[in-house]
Design goal:
Structural class: mainly beta
Distance between the termini: 141 Å
Radius of gyration: 41 Å
Number of strands: 69
Strand content: over 45%
Largest sheet: 21 strands, mixed
Helix content: under 10%
């Protein structure tokens, strides 16, 4: 037995090898299938192919086969089937149609070739998915631009896309195309009205020396698109939605985010998404409006030649929505263009040179770097409160605050203005006033030249943290008539007696008022109290009136007399034999044009004006008073009447200073709602 054992082992081994050979035949090799179209246009019909596997060699391609489609008489259509191939090539003039409900999966390259004559086309109404490889456009002749087209509104998923030089790829019918790899451009790509979506969830890139043109561009959550090589711009015709990251570096003078493609046909581009967008620079052409919505942009042009890196060129309109634009470049080049720049929040993280470009700012201004104002005007015009801050002091060229807008400096160091300061809204500043004279909102050019004065406060002790608001070129809402067109609000933490100097401009002094005769008035919540007056003086930007021993802080106004249209000493009604005699007396008529007298059966009205024409002031502009009367003959005995007296100021404004009521011995009630009673 010992001698036979090795022989048995060898025999068993040989038998096992033989069984294995016959049980697993060698798999068929991948075929190189070529479309002939000899039996029609159906992809799945035998006889339309050559070079494929199968008994006849003309069976439809299998999953591992490569496919080439030439310019045969009949071009293929995939209908009602799901087809998978290893790679796909279309030569000049060839076309492939994927019908609705059909699907094509390509596990490698899609190569489109043309010779400058006929267009090479893929028409997709179903589904095209490339799981790997590159979609390439090749010029097979180089004598003219090779033309390619992707048609159809079906579902497209591509991996990488490369357009070579002297080629032109047009996307037709506005499909949405998912790209999960990289895009390299040397040829032309016309996006039509398509939506290109980068959504691999990883890192993808744009490269090449031709511009990357998009109609709608989307970046999905978790996806980063890097545009860091090549000289091409990223051009957007319609919308940009970024929920991931766009990172563009400035190693090329031409690399930028550009909103300009067919600006006349597509005049508006809208931005959206919660992602991060960092670009080398922004360019908006004429007739183009860009609406940022809530999508913020960072401009980071730190690498290329500093003198050539214009960070912002706008010849159209930019609307900042609720977004923030951050300038993080160190470029010495100035902003460019003659367009309208409506920013929301502006952050200067490095350097921004405005040049001659004007900036409208609806939100906040934060300067942590260098702002070169050039000849620009910065206007805060959001209609609400904008904050000014940052670690650097900003020197504006021209600065304007629009009506209805407040610019709040907070506790930051005050800005400078090199040329003109215009406050038609409100300026607000907070400082600690604990002794000595503290100047609020006194703006200079950064040197000795004053551009705007607010107030000076000298407390007899500590007011603590104190906020001062100066509303320019406007009358306090509680005042009427013709006071100085500037309103002052002072809000200290603690109250101590203080001297306050109130400043105003020549242009804010209204007719009938003079500097020497101005008085200071403090609104107590119901009326105006006169403040003890100190010195007056100044001129131009710095006229001033000083108030002494002020210990009540709230709105302050400057006026020769009380900021009411008229001071009424008495308002009476008396019943005579056939009429009611209404009488009133004034103490002063410095700002009075005349009166209107109204009557009603109750305070709720309706009111009837008794005088056809204005009851004229007897002493218009005079510090002295007069007496008036009106006979109301259209009355009935035993009936109650309510009378209302309306005073009209010199500028035509009705007085709204308070109300009073009187009752006659016969039960006649009289009501004076719009003038003060002494």
């Amino acid at each position: 037995m010992r001698r036979e054992w090795p022989v048995i082992l060898v025999s068993v081994a040989l038998l096992a090898l033989g069984l294995s050979h016959f049980a697993s035949p060698k798999p068929a090799t991948a075929a190189a299938c070529i479309w002939t179209g000899g039996a029609g246009s159906n992809w799945g019909t035998s006889g339309n192919w050559t070079g494929c596997n199968g008994a006849s060699g003309n069976e439809p391609p299998a999953a591992g086969d490569t496919v080439t489609i030439g310019s045969a008489l009949n071009q293929p259509t995939i209908t009602g089937a799901s087809v998978t191939v290893a790679s796909l090539a279309l030569t000049s003039g060839a076309s492939l149609t994927i019908a609705s409900g059909a699907a094509l999966t390509v596990n490698g390259d899609i190569t489109l070739s043309a010779d400058g004559g006929a267009t090479t086309t893929i028409d997709n109404a179903g589904t095209v998915e490339a799981t790997a490889g590159i979609l390439k456009t090749n010029n097979s002749n180089s004598t003219g631009t090779a033309q390619f087209a992707l048609h159809g509104s079906g579902a497209w998923t591509l991996q990488n896309v490369t357009t070579y030089s002297i080629t032109s790829l047009t996307i037709v019918d506005g499909p949405s195309i998912r790209i999960r790899g990289n895009v390299s451009r040397a040829g032309i790509l016309d996006p039509g009205t398509s939506t290109i979506v980068f959504d691999s969830g990883g890192s993808q890139s744009l490269s090449g020396n031709s511009d990357h043109n998009f109609y709608n561009l989307e970046i999905g959550s978790g996806t980063t698109v890097n545009h860091a090589s090549g000289s091409g711009a990223l051009r957007i015709r319609n919308s940009f939605t970024n929920n991931g990251t766009l990172s563009q570096t400035s190693t090329s003078a031409n690399r930028r985010l550009q909103f300009d493609y067919d600006a006349l046909d597509y005049p508006t581009s809208n931005l959206s998404g919660s992602g991060s967008t960092t670009v080398a620079r922004v360019e908006i052409v004429s007739n183009k409006t860009v609406n940022a919505g809530g999508h913020s942009i960072t401009i980071n042009n730190n690498t290329y030649n500093s003198a050539l890196r214009v960070p912002w060129t706008n010849n159209g309109t930019f609307n900042g929505g609720t977004a923030t634009v951050t300038f993080n470049g160190d470029s010495s080049a100035a902003m460019d263009g003659i367009g309208v720049n409506n920013f929301n929040h502006v952050v200067i993280a490095n350097t921004l040179n405005a040049g001659s470009a004007d900036l409208n700012v609806a939100g906040n201004w934060t300067n942590n770097g260098i702002f070169g104002a050039g000849t620009s005007t910065v206007t805060f015009d959001g209609g609400s409160t904008s904050t000014y801050g940052g670690s650097s002091t900003t020197t504006f060229n021209n600065l304007a605050v629009s009506p209805g807008t407040a610019l709040d400096v907070g506790a930051n160091a005050l800005f400078n203005v090199a040329s003109t300061m215009t406050n038609d809204g409100t300026l607000r500043q907070t400082q600690t006033a604990n002794g000595g004279t503290v100047a609020f909102l006194n703006v200079t050019d950064g040197g000795a030249t004053a551009r705007y004065y607010g107030v000076d406060i000298t407390p007899n002790g500590s007011l603590g943290s104190t906020t001062v608001a100066v509303s320019g070129n406007q009358v306090c809402s509680q005042a009427t008539g013709s006071p100085v067109r500037r309103c002052f609000e002072i809000s200290p933490t603690s109250v101590v007696s203080s001297a306050v100097t109130f400043y105003f401009r020549d242009a804010e002094l209204q007719a009938g008022q003079t500097l020497d005769s101005l008085q200071i008035w403090h609104y107590n919540g119901a009326g105006w109290d006169q403040v003890t007056k100190g010195a007056t003086g100044g001129s131009g930007e710095g006229n001033f009136v000083q108030g002494l021993d002020i210990s009540s802080f709230s709105p302050f106004a400057l006026k020769n007399s009380s900021p009411l249209a008229v001071t009424v000493a008495a308002f009476r009604a008396a019943l005579h034999e056939d009429h009611i005699l209404v009488t009133w007396e004034t103490v002063s008529e410095l700002d009075l044009r005349g009166f209107n007298l109204y009557r009603a059966g109750s305070r709720a009205g309706p009111w009837t004006r008794l005088n056809r024409g204005l009851i004229g002031s007897q002493r218009p502009g005079s510090p002295e008073g007069s007496s008036y009367q009106w006979e109301d003959s259209d009355v009935s005995a035993g009936t109650a009447y309510v009378y209302r007296l309306e005073a009209i100021s010199l500028d035509g404004t009705p007085s709204t200073a308070g109300m009073t009521e009187a009752t006659t011995r016969l039960g006649l009630r009289l009501w004076l709602p719009l003038v003060a009673r002494q």
